[in-house]
Design brief:
Layout lengths: L2 H20 L1 H45 L3 H6 L7 H7 L4 H16 L3 H8 L7 H17 L3 H12 L7 H16 L2 H14 L9 H14 L1
Helix pairs in contact: 2-5, 4-5, 5-6, 5-7, 6-7, 7-8, 7-9, 8-9, 9-10, 10-11
Length: 224
Amino acid sequence: MSTEEQSAENQSIQSISAFLETNKNNVMIAGIALILLAGGIYYYTNSYAPAMETDASESLYMAERYFGQDSMDKALNGDGLNLGMKDIADDFGSTSAGNRAAYYAGTILLKKGEFQEALDYLDDVTMDDEIMAAQVTTLKGDCYSEMEQYEKAGDMYMKAANMRDNMITTPYALIKAGIAYEEAGAFDDAKSAYEELQSNYTDSRFANKVETRIARVEAKLSAE
């Protein structure tokens, strides 16, 4: 190493030492904060989150039983001893069981006519399975439709239709999209939904009478 390089290195070391000396309190605080953060992440990952998941799953067990028995009020609100879907979703929303509870809560509330509250819970649901994700999105469309927000409903149904190309959820979402857009007076969008159904899902039972629907919206477009 040359004399100039040695001198530059010494100056660099001196600068770092001076900085640490001047800011030693801040450096110490930052180091402690990093240690606490790492410890917090470790505790959450290895202790807190698993315990929350266990508690949520145990609470969900009875609520799911009530749902299976068609006891919707108990499934939704609990029985006085066991939590219902709403409380499980609210208290354990970060867990997979809490996520399932939000789905159940939204489904039940939709059936009970509590459309905005149903939508609030469904908005919190995340499904990895594409078919289930499409179903949740379709339910959101149902909420908007029931609240007579038909264009939003149609958009939500189209979103569901585009999530996964299959013979189960896609044609169902397309027919609902067409109907919702018709209600909204968005006849071009309705025609597009019906034509997609006609072109790609002719074997689906939801394609029944789709030609009649297309003719109807074309007549409405001509009359505009």
